[in-house]
Amino acid sequence: MSNADIGLIGLAVMGQNLALNIADHGYTIAVYNRHHEKTDDFIALCRQREPSHERVQGHADLAGFVRAIKRPRKIVLLVKAGQPTDITINNLVPYLEAGDIVIDGGNAHWLDTIRREKELTAKGFHFIGSGVSGGETGARFGPSLMPGGSREAWASLEPIWRDIAAKVDADTGVPLPGAEPGKPVSGGVPCTAYVGADGSGHYVKMVHNGIEYIDMQLICEAYWLLKQLLDWDADAIGEVFREWNTGELSSYLIEITGDILGQRDPSGQGFLVDHVLDTAGQKGTGLWTASSALEQGVPANAIAEAVFARSLSALKDERLAASALLQGPEAASGHDPAELIPAIRDALYCSKICAYAQGFQLLAEAQKTYGWTLDFGTLAQIWRGGCIIRARFLQKITDAYQADPNLKNLMLDPYFRSSLHDGQAHWREVVALAVRNGIPTPAFGSALAYYDGYRSGSLPANLLQAQRDYFGAHTYERIDQPRGKFFHLDWPAADRPELPQ
Ligand code: 6PG
Q: Which of 45, 117, 128, 409 could disulfide-link 198, Cβ–Cβ 3.0 to 4.6 Å?
Protein backbone atom coordinates (compact mmCIF):
# COMPACT_ATOMS: atom_id res chain seq x y z
CA MET A 1 0.00 0.00 0.00
CA SER A 2 1.35 3.46 -0.90
CA ASN A 3 0.65 5.63 2.10
CA ALA A 4 3.91 7.45 2.76
CA ASP A 5 3.90 11.16 1.98
CA ILE A 6 7.61 11.18 1.32
CA GLY A 7 10.61 8.84 1.30
CA LEU A 8 14.17 9.31 2.56
CA ILE A 9 17.31 7.39 1.66
CA GLY A 10 20.40 7.57 3.86
CA LEU A 11 20.11 7.14 7.60
CA ALA A 12 23.31 8.75 8.82
CA VAL A 13 22.93 11.53 11.40
CA MET A 14 21.41 14.12 9.03
CA GLY A 15 19.01 11.61 7.46
CA GLN A 16 17.73 10.31 10.78
CA ASN A 17 17.15 13.78 12.15
CA LEU A 18 15.43 15.07 9.03
CA ALA A 19 13.16 11.99 9.01
CA LEU A 20 12.11 12.66 12.63
CA ASN A 21 11.51 16.32 11.84
CA ILE A 22 9.28 15.35 8.88
CA ALA A 23 7.35 12.84 11.04
CA ASP A 24 6.91 15.46 13.77
CA HIS A 25 5.05 17.57 11.24
CA GLY A 26 2.43 14.90 10.64
CA TYR A 27 3.85 13.27 7.52
CA THR A 28 4.22 9.57 7.05
CA ILE A 29 7.75 8.90 5.88
CA ALA A 30 9.29 5.76 4.38
CA VAL A 31 13.00 5.35 5.07
CA TYR A 32 15.66 3.19 3.45
CA ASN A 33 19.35 2.67 4.04
CA ARG A 34 21.87 0.68 2.01
CA HIS A 35 22.70 -1.38 5.10
CA HIS A 36 19.33 -2.48 6.43
CA GLU A 37 20.65 -3.01 9.99
CA LYS A 38 20.84 0.76 10.24
CA THR A 39 17.19 1.02 9.22
CA ASP A 40 16.22 -1.61 11.80
CA ASP A 41 18.12 0.17 14.57
CA PHE A 42 16.59 3.51 13.64
CA ILE A 43 13.05 2.12 13.54
CA ALA A 44 13.59 0.39 16.91
CA LEU A 45 14.66 3.76 18.32
CA CYS A 46 11.66 5.51 16.77
CA ARG A 47 9.28 3.06 18.42
CA GLN A 48 10.72 3.95 21.84
CA ARG A 49 10.31 7.69 21.39
CA GLU A 50 7.46 10.00 20.43
CA PRO A 51 4.05 8.76 19.16
CA SER A 52 4.69 10.82 15.99
CA HIS A 53 7.61 8.56 15.20
CA GLU A 54 5.14 5.76 14.46
CA ARG A 55 4.87 7.59 11.16
CA VAL A 56 8.41 6.53 10.23
CA GLN A 57 8.29 3.29 8.19
CA GLY A 58 11.45 1.27 7.64
CA HIS A 59 12.07 -0.68 4.43
CA ALA A 60 14.69 -3.28 3.80
CA ASP A 61 14.40 -3.35 0.00
CA LEU A 62 14.43 -0.47 -2.41
CA ALA A 63 11.48 -1.67 -4.51
CA GLY A 64 9.23 -1.93 -1.44
CA PHE A 65 10.44 1.44 -0.22
CA VAL A 66 9.53 3.14 -3.52
CA ARG A 67 6.16 1.35 -3.70
CA ALA A 68 5.28 2.62 -0.22
CA ILE A 69 5.38 6.26 -1.33
CA LYS A 70 2.36 8.09 -2.76
CA ARG A 71 2.71 9.35 -6.34
CA PRO A 72 4.16 11.60 -7.56
CA ARG A 73 6.83 10.36 -5.20
CA LYS A 74 9.10 12.68 -3.30
CA ILE A 75 12.32 10.94 -2.34
CA VAL A 76 14.97 12.77 -0.32
CA LEU A 77 18.58 11.60 -0.60
CA LEU A 78 20.90 12.27 2.32
CA VAL A 79 23.89 10.30 1.19
CA LYS A 80 27.53 11.30 0.67
CA ALA A 81 28.08 13.84 -2.09
CA GLY A 82 29.81 12.69 -5.29
CA GLN A 83 29.83 9.10 -6.49
CA PRO A 84 27.63 7.68 -3.69
CA THR A 85 24.86 10.05 -4.79
CA ASP A 86 25.16 8.91 -8.42
CA ILE A 87 25.12 5.26 -7.36
CA THR A 88 22.01 5.82 -5.22
CA ILE A 89 20.21 7.62 -8.06
CA ASN A 90 21.13 4.87 -10.54
CA ASN A 91 19.79 2.21 -8.18
CA LEU A 92 16.61 4.17 -7.64
CA VAL A 93 15.78 5.06 -11.24
CA PRO A 94 14.44 1.62 -12.33
CA TYR A 95 11.70 1.89 -9.69
CA LEU A 96 10.64 5.47 -10.40
CA GLU A 97 7.62 6.50 -12.46
CA ALA A 98 7.00 9.60 -14.56
CA GLY A 99 6.71 12.75 -12.50
CA ASP A 100 8.48 11.38 -9.41
CA ILE A 101 10.78 13.86 -7.65
CA VAL A 102 14.24 13.09 -6.32
CA ILE A 103 15.57 15.64 -3.81
CA ASP A 104 19.28 15.68 -3.05
CA GLY A 105 19.80 17.20 0.41
CA GLY A 106 23.57 16.63 0.53
CA ASN A 107 26.36 19.14 0.01
CA ALA A 108 26.58 18.33 -3.70
CA HIS A 109 28.75 20.22 -6.17
CA TRP A 110 26.40 22.43 -8.18
CA LEU A 111 27.72 21.17 -11.52
CA ASP A 112 26.82 17.61 -10.47
CA THR A 113 23.35 18.88 -9.62
CA ILE A 114 23.00 20.56 -13.02
CA ARG A 115 24.04 17.30 -14.70
CA ARG A 116 21.75 15.12 -12.58
CA GLU A 117 18.81 17.44 -13.14
CA LYS A 118 19.32 17.17 -16.90
CA GLU A 119 19.67 13.41 -16.82
CA LEU A 120 16.60 12.82 -14.67
CA THR A 121 14.49 15.35 -16.55
CA ALA A 122 15.33 13.53 -19.79
CA LYS A 123 13.94 10.36 -18.19
CA GLY A 124 10.69 12.07 -17.19
CA PHE A 125 11.53 12.62 -13.51
CA HIS A 126 12.20 15.76 -11.49
CA PHE A 127 15.33 16.56 -9.55
CA ILE A 128 15.74 19.13 -6.81
CA GLY A 129 19.11 19.99 -5.33
CA SER A 130 18.37 21.40 -1.92
CA GLY A 131 20.93 22.92 0.38
CA VAL A 132 20.27 21.83 3.96
CA SER A 133 22.04 23.78 6.67
CA GLY A 134 22.02 23.63 10.43
CA GLY A 135 23.85 20.41 11.22
CA GLU A 136 22.24 17.71 13.30
CA THR A 137 20.08 20.00 15.46
CA GLY A 138 18.95 22.01 12.47
CA ALA A 139 17.89 18.87 10.59
CA ARG A 140 15.98 17.71 13.66
CA PHE A 141 14.24 20.92 14.73
CA GLY A 142 14.38 23.27 11.76
CA PRO A 143 17.08 23.69 9.12
CA SER A 144 17.49 26.42 6.54
CA LEU A 145 16.55 24.83 3.20
CA MET A 146 17.75 26.11 -0.19
CA PRO A 147 15.97 24.23 -2.99
CA GLY A 148 16.80 24.54 -6.69
CA GLY A 149 15.09 22.74 -9.56
CA SER A 150 11.90 22.98 -11.59
CA ARG A 151 9.10 25.14 -10.20
CA GLU A 152 6.65 22.30 -10.77
CA ALA A 153 8.62 19.97 -8.53
CA TRP A 154 9.05 22.70 -5.94
CA ALA A 155 5.27 23.26 -5.80
CA SER A 156 4.90 19.62 -4.77
CA LEU A 157 7.69 19.70 -2.17
CA GLU A 158 7.02 23.18 -0.81
CA PRO A 159 4.43 22.36 1.91
CA ILE A 160 6.73 19.80 3.55
CA TRP A 161 9.86 21.96 3.18
CA ARG A 162 8.05 24.97 4.69
CA ASP A 163 6.76 22.88 7.58
CA ILE A 164 10.09 21.39 8.56
CA ALA A 165 12.25 24.51 8.05
CA ALA A 166 13.35 26.79 10.88
CA LYS A 167 11.00 29.69 11.56
CA VAL A 168 11.77 33.31 12.27
CA ASP A 169 9.60 36.08 13.66
CA ALA A 170 7.79 37.86 10.82
CA ASP A 171 8.61 41.35 12.10
CA THR A 172 12.08 41.05 13.57
CA GLY A 173 13.54 38.11 11.64
CA VAL A 174 14.72 36.64 14.95
CA PRO A 175 14.64 32.81 15.01
CA LEU A 176 11.69 31.47 16.97
CA PRO A 177 12.57 29.22 19.92
CA GLY A 178 13.39 25.75 18.62
CA ALA A 179 10.88 22.95 18.43
CA GLU A 180 10.88 20.06 20.86
CA PRO A 181 10.53 16.38 19.98
CA GLY A 182 7.00 15.83 18.78
CA LYS A 183 6.16 19.52 19.15
CA PRO A 184 6.92 21.55 16.05
CA VAL A 185 7.10 25.35 16.15
CA SER A 186 3.86 26.95 15.09
CA GLY A 187 3.72 30.23 13.16
CA GLY A 188 6.63 32.32 11.96
CA VAL A 189 8.23 32.69 8.55
CA PRO A 190 9.88 29.49 7.28
CA CYS A 191 13.55 29.63 6.33
CA THR A 192 13.08 28.16 2.89
CA ALA A 193 12.08 29.50 -0.50
CA TYR A 194 12.54 28.55 -4.13
CA VAL A 195 16.08 29.55 -5.08
CA GLY A 196 16.08 28.95 -8.84
CA ALA A 197 16.73 26.38 -11.57
CA ASP A 198 18.88 23.22 -11.50
CA GLY A 199 22.09 23.67 -9.43
CA SER A 200 21.24 27.07 -7.92
CA GLY A 201 20.15 25.69 -4.53
CA HIS A 202 23.38 23.80 -4.10
CA TYR A 203 25.41 26.76 -5.35
CA VAL A 204 23.74 29.01 -2.78
CA LYS A 205 24.43 26.41 -0.07
CA MET A 206 28.06 26.29 -1.18
CA VAL A 207 28.36 30.08 -0.88
CA HIS A 208 26.69 29.81 2.53
CA ASN A 209 29.50 27.46 3.49
CA GLY A 210 32.16 29.80 2.05
CA ILE A 211 30.71 32.53 4.25
CA GLU A 212 30.63 30.06 7.14
CA TYR A 213 34.39 29.53 6.64
CA ILE A 214 35.21 33.25 6.75
CA ASP A 215 32.79 33.93 9.61
CA MET A 216 34.53 31.23 11.66
CA GLN A 217 38.02 32.42 10.70
CA LEU A 218 37.20 36.02 11.67
CA ILE A 219 35.94 34.85 15.06
CA CYS A 220 39.11 32.81 15.53
CA GLU A 221 41.27 35.83 14.71
CA ALA A 222 39.33 37.96 17.22
CA TYR A 223 39.81 35.25 19.86
CA TRP A 224 43.51 34.96 19.08
CA LEU A 225 44.10 38.71 19.30
CA LEU A 226 42.28 38.85 22.63
CA LYS A 227 44.27 35.89 23.92
CA GLN A 228 47.65 37.21 22.76
CA LEU A 229 47.19 40.86 23.58
CA LEU A 230 45.35 40.53 26.91
CA ASP A 231 46.70 37.19 28.10
CA TRP A 232 43.24 36.29 29.43
CA ASP A 233 42.04 32.74 30.01
CA ALA A 234 39.52 31.14 27.66
CA ASP A 235 36.48 31.77 29.82
CA ALA A 236 37.30 35.46 30.25
CA ILE A 237 37.49 35.74 26.45
CA GLY A 238 34.29 33.71 26.24
CA GLU A 239 32.64 36.42 28.33
CA VAL A 240 33.57 38.96 25.64
CA PHE A 241 31.84 36.80 23.01
CA ARG A 242 28.81 36.30 25.27
CA GLU A 243 28.59 40.08 25.58
CA TRP A 244 29.03 40.57 21.81
CA ASN A 245 26.21 38.11 21.28
CA THR A 246 23.79 40.58 22.82
CA GLY A 247 24.45 43.23 20.14
CA GLU A 248 24.92 43.69 16.39
CA LEU A 249 27.26 40.69 16.21
CA SER A 250 24.63 38.37 17.66
CA SER A 251 24.80 35.09 15.74
CA TYR A 252 24.88 31.35 16.16
CA LEU A 253 28.65 31.21 15.61
CA ILE A 254 29.35 33.95 18.20
CA GLU A 255 27.01 32.19 20.63
CA ILE A 256 28.69 28.80 20.31
CA THR A 257 32.10 30.47 20.59
CA GLY A 258 31.05 31.83 23.99
CA ASP A 259 29.98 28.32 25.00
CA ILE A 260 33.13 26.67 23.66
CA LEU A 261 35.47 29.10 25.41
CA GLY A 262 33.69 28.54 28.73
CA GLN A 263 33.93 24.76 28.49
CA ARG A 264 36.25 23.18 31.03
CA ASP A 265 38.37 20.22 29.94
CA PRO A 266 36.34 17.14 30.96
CA SER A 267 39.47 15.00 31.06
CA GLY A 268 41.97 17.38 32.60
CA GLN A 269 42.66 20.83 33.97
CA GLY A 270 41.62 24.18 32.58
CA PHE A 271 39.58 24.85 29.46
CA LEU A 272 39.00 22.36 26.68
CA VAL A 273 39.84 24.79 23.86
CA ASP A 274 43.42 25.03 25.14
CA HIS A 275 43.77 21.27 24.66
CA VAL A 276 42.33 21.05 21.17
CA LEU A 277 45.01 20.62 18.47
CA ASP A 278 45.25 23.73 16.29
CA THR A 279 44.68 22.08 12.91
CA ALA A 280 41.39 22.59 11.08
CA GLY A 281 39.83 20.11 8.67
CA GLN A 282 37.64 20.84 5.68
CA LYS A 283 35.33 18.83 3.48
CA GLY A 284 35.59 20.98 0.38
CA THR A 285 32.70 23.44 0.11
CA GLY A 286 34.95 26.38 1.10
CA LEU A 287 37.43 25.31 -1.54
CA TRP A 288 34.65 25.08 -4.14
CA THR A 289 33.50 28.60 -3.22
CA ALA A 290 37.00 30.02 -3.54
CA SER A 291 37.69 28.24 -6.84
CA SER A 292 34.35 29.31 -8.26
CA ALA A 293 35.24 32.91 -7.32
CA LEU A 294 38.62 32.57 -9.04
CA GLU A 295 37.03 31.05 -12.13
CA GLN A 296 34.47 33.81 -12.42
CA GLY A 297 36.89 36.62 -11.59
CA VAL A 298 35.04 37.66 -8.44
CA PRO A 299 37.35 39.19 -5.80
CA ALA A 300 36.23 37.00 -2.88
CA ASN A 301 39.70 37.22 -1.36
CA ALA A 302 38.61 37.04 2.27
CA ILE A 303 36.63 33.84 1.64
CA ALA A 304 39.65 32.31 -0.12
CA GLU A 305 41.88 33.48 2.73
CA ALA A 306 39.71 31.56 5.20
CA VAL A 307 40.29 28.39 3.18
CA PHE A 308 44.05 29.02 3.07
CA ALA A 309 44.05 29.68 6.82
CA ARG A 310 42.72 26.14 7.33
CA SER A 311 45.38 24.79 4.96
CA LEU A 312 48.12 26.63 6.86
CA SER A 313 46.75 25.37 10.17
CA ALA A 314 47.03 21.82 8.86
CA LEU A 315 50.83 22.22 8.43
CA LYS A 316 51.30 21.72 12.16
CA ASP A 317 54.67 19.95 12.02
CA GLU A 318 56.13 22.42 9.54
CA ARG A 319 54.89 25.33 11.61
CA LEU A 320 56.41 23.89 14.73
CA ALA A 321 59.76 23.45 12.99
CA ALA A 322 59.59 26.95 11.47
CA SER A 323 58.71 28.52 14.83
CA ALA A 324 62.23 27.69 15.99
CA LEU A 325 63.83 29.18 12.88
CA LEU A 326 61.84 32.16 11.63
CA GLN A 327 61.92 35.28 13.76
CA GLY A 328 59.27 37.94 14.33
CA PRO A 329 58.11 40.29 17.04
CA GLU A 330 56.87 38.79 20.30
CA ALA A 331 53.20 39.60 20.94
CA ALA A 332 53.06 42.11 23.80
CA SER A 333 50.26 41.45 26.25
CA GLY A 334 48.94 43.95 28.77
CA HIS A 335 46.82 46.09 26.45
CA ASP A 336 43.93 48.03 27.90
CA PRO A 337 40.85 45.81 27.53
CA ALA A 338 38.56 48.85 27.58
CA GLU A 339 40.19 50.03 24.35
CA LEU A 340 41.12 46.75 22.74
CA ILE A 341 37.79 44.90 23.01
CA PRO A 342 35.64 47.52 21.23
CA ALA A 343 38.35 47.90 18.58
CA ILE A 344 38.38 44.16 17.85
CA ARG A 345 34.60 44.11 17.87
CA ASP A 346 34.51 46.79 15.16
CA ALA A 347 37.23 45.03 13.14
CA LEU A 348 35.16 41.86 13.32
CA TYR A 349 31.94 43.57 12.28
CA CYS A 350 33.51 45.48 9.37
CA SER A 351 35.32 42.36 8.12
CA LYS A 352 32.07 40.41 8.36
CA ILE A 353 30.31 42.98 6.17
CA CYS A 354 33.06 42.54 3.54
CA ALA A 355 32.80 38.77 3.75
CA TYR A 356 29.07 38.80 3.07
CA ALA A 357 29.55 41.43 0.35
CA GLN A 358 31.94 39.01 -1.35
CA GLY A 359 29.53 36.10 -1.00
CA PHE A 360 26.69 38.07 -2.56
CA GLN A 361 28.94 39.38 -5.35
CA LEU A 362 29.83 35.80 -6.14
CA LEU A 363 26.15 34.89 -6.30
CA ALA A 364 25.50 37.87 -8.56
CA GLU A 365 28.16 36.70 -11.01
CA ALA A 366 27.14 33.04 -10.82
CA GLN A 367 23.57 33.83 -11.78
CA LYS A 368 24.88 35.33 -15.02
CA THR A 369 27.20 32.41 -15.68
CA TYR A 370 24.56 29.75 -15.05
CA GLY A 371 21.43 31.58 -16.20
CA TRP A 372 19.71 31.81 -12.82
CA THR A 373 17.60 34.63 -11.43
CA LEU A 374 18.44 34.86 -7.76
CA ASP A 375 16.58 37.03 -5.29
CA PHE A 376 19.22 38.17 -2.80
CA GLY A 377 16.69 39.54 -0.31
CA THR A 378 15.02 36.12 -0.18
CA LEU A 379 18.36 34.35 0.20
CA ALA A 380 19.29 36.56 3.16
CA GLN A 381 15.83 35.88 4.54
CA ILE A 382 16.17 32.10 4.45
CA TRP A 383 19.56 32.34 6.17
CA ARG A 384 18.06 34.24 9.13
CA GLY A 385 17.25 31.05 10.98
CA GLY A 386 18.24 27.38 11.03
CA CYS A 387 21.60 27.62 9.29
CA ILE A 388 25.13 27.88 10.66
CA ILE A 389 25.57 31.51 9.58
CA ARG A 390 22.25 32.67 11.08
CA ALA A 391 22.74 36.08 12.58
CA ARG A 392 20.88 39.22 13.55
CA PHE A 393 22.91 40.88 10.80
CA LEU A 394 21.02 38.92 8.11
CA GLN A 395 17.92 40.99 8.76
CA LYS A 396 19.99 44.03 7.77
CA ILE A 397 21.01 42.28 4.55
CA THR A 398 17.38 41.37 3.88
CA ASP A 399 16.43 45.03 4.42
CA ALA A 400 19.24 46.22 2.16
CA TYR A 401 18.17 44.04 -0.79
CA GLN A 402 14.50 44.77 -0.21
CA ALA A 403 15.27 48.50 -0.34
CA ASP A 404 17.36 48.06 -3.49
CA PRO A 405 17.16 44.68 -5.27
CA ASN A 406 19.84 45.90 -7.72
CA LEU A 407 22.34 46.85 -5.04
CA LYS A 408 25.78 46.48 -6.68
CA ASN A 409 27.60 45.64 -3.48
CA LEU A 410 26.36 45.23 0.09
CA MET A 411 28.98 47.71 1.30
CA LEU A 412 27.15 50.45 -0.65
CA ASP A 413 23.90 50.06 1.29
CA PRO A 414 23.46 53.09 3.59
CA TYR A 415 23.39 51.02 6.80
CA PHE A 416 26.48 48.96 5.94
CA ARG A 417 28.27 52.01 4.55
CA SER A 418 27.85 53.88 7.81
CA SER A 419 28.87 50.78 9.83
CA LEU A 420 32.07 50.61 7.77
CA HIS A 421 32.69 54.32 8.20
CA ASP A 422 32.11 54.14 11.95
CA GLY A 423 34.22 51.02 12.47
CA GLN A 424 37.12 51.52 10.10
CA ALA A 425 39.43 53.51 12.39
CA HIS A 426 39.34 50.64 14.88
CA TRP A 427 39.61 48.07 12.10
CA ARG A 428 42.79 49.68 10.78
CA GLU A 429 44.26 49.95 14.29
CA VAL A 430 43.57 46.28 14.93
CA VAL A 431 45.18 45.14 11.68
CA ALA A 432 48.19 47.39 12.37
CA LEU A 433 48.42 46.09 15.94
CA ALA A 434 48.33 42.52 14.68
CA VAL A 435 51.09 43.23 12.15
CA ARG A 436 53.25 45.00 14.75
CA ASN A 437 52.84 42.11 17.17
CA GLY A 438 53.40 39.38 14.60
CA ILE A 439 49.91 37.93 15.09
CA PRO A 440 48.50 36.44 11.87
CA THR A 441 45.08 37.90 11.01
CA PRO A 442 44.71 37.02 7.32
CA ALA A 443 40.93 37.40 7.23
CA PHE A 444 40.84 40.80 8.98
CA GLY A 445 43.65 41.99 6.71
CA SER A 446 42.26 40.69 3.43
CA ALA A 447 38.79 42.02 4.20
CA LEU A 448 40.32 45.44 4.82
CA ALA A 449 42.32 45.22 1.58
CA TYR A 450 39.07 44.38 -0.21
CA TYR A 451 37.36 47.40 1.31
CA ASP A 452 40.24 49.71 0.40
CA GLY A 453 40.55 48.20 -3.08
CA TYR A 454 36.83 48.44 -3.82
CA ARG A 455 36.66 52.08 -2.72
CA SER A 456 39.73 53.07 -4.81
CA GLY A 457 38.95 54.92 -8.00
CA SER A 458 42.56 54.32 -9.03
CA LEU A 459 44.71 51.25 -8.52
CA PRO A 460 48.26 50.46 -9.66
CA ALA A 461 46.91 48.21 -12.41
CA ASN A 462 48.00 50.91 -14.90
CA LEU A 463 51.57 49.78 -14.27
CA LEU A 464 50.55 46.15 -14.36
CA GLN A 465 48.88 46.53 -17.72
CA ALA A 466 51.95 48.38 -19.05
CA GLN A 467 54.14 45.49 -17.84
CA ARG A 468 51.87 43.06 -19.68
CA ASP A 469 52.18 45.12 -22.83
CA TYR A 470 55.97 45.39 -22.40
CA PHE A 471 56.70 41.67 -22.27
CA GLY A 472 53.72 40.20 -24.04
CA ALA A 473 52.16 42.85 -26.29
CA HIS A 474 48.93 42.42 -24.33
CA THR A 475 47.89 46.04 -25.13
CA TYR A 476 46.42 48.67 -22.83
CA GLU A 477 43.64 51.26 -22.80
CA ARG A 478 44.37 54.97 -22.20
CA ILE A 479 42.56 57.16 -19.70
CA ASP A 480 42.22 59.90 -22.34
CA GLN A 481 40.68 57.59 -24.95
CA PRO A 482 37.33 55.77 -25.06
CA ARG A 483 37.13 52.42 -23.22
CA GLY A 484 37.59 49.48 -25.56
CA LYS A 485 40.24 51.22 -27.69
CA PHE A 486 43.51 49.34 -27.22
CA PHE A 487 47.09 50.49 -27.78
CA HIS A 488 50.48 48.86 -27.98
CA LEU A 489 53.97 50.30 -27.66
CA ASP A 490 57.06 48.60 -28.97
CA TRP A 491 58.89 48.90 -25.64
CA PRO A 492 61.41 50.19 -24.65
CA ALA A 493 61.63 52.97 -27.15
CA ALA A 494 60.63 56.50 -26.39
CA ASP A 495 60.88 57.42 -30.04
CA ARG A 496 58.69 54.64 -31.38
CA PRO A 497 55.04 55.50 -31.96
CA GLU A 498 52.21 54.18 -29.85
CA LEU A 499 50.02 52.10 -32.14
CA PRO A 500 46.26 51.61 -31.82
CA GLN A 501 45.52 47.86 -31.87
C1 6PG B 1 25.83 23.40 7.49
C2 6PG B 1 27.31 23.13 7.36
C3 6PG B 1 27.60 21.75 6.90
C4 6PG B 1 29.09 21.49 6.65
C5 6PG B 1 29.92 21.44 7.88
C6 6PG B 1 31.33 20.95 7.66
O7 6PG B 1 25.41 24.35 6.85
O8 6PG B 1 25.15 22.71 8.22
O9 6PG B 1 27.84 24.02 6.42
O10 6PG B 1 26.91 21.55 5.71
O11 6PG B 1 29.21 20.28 6.03
O12 6PG B 1 29.93 22.68 8.49
O13 6PG B 1 32.03 21.67 6.71
P14 6PG B 1 33.63 21.60 6.69
O15 6PG B 1 34.01 20.21 7.06
O16 6PG B 1 34.05 21.93 5.30
O17 6PG B 1 34.09 22.59 7.71
A: 117
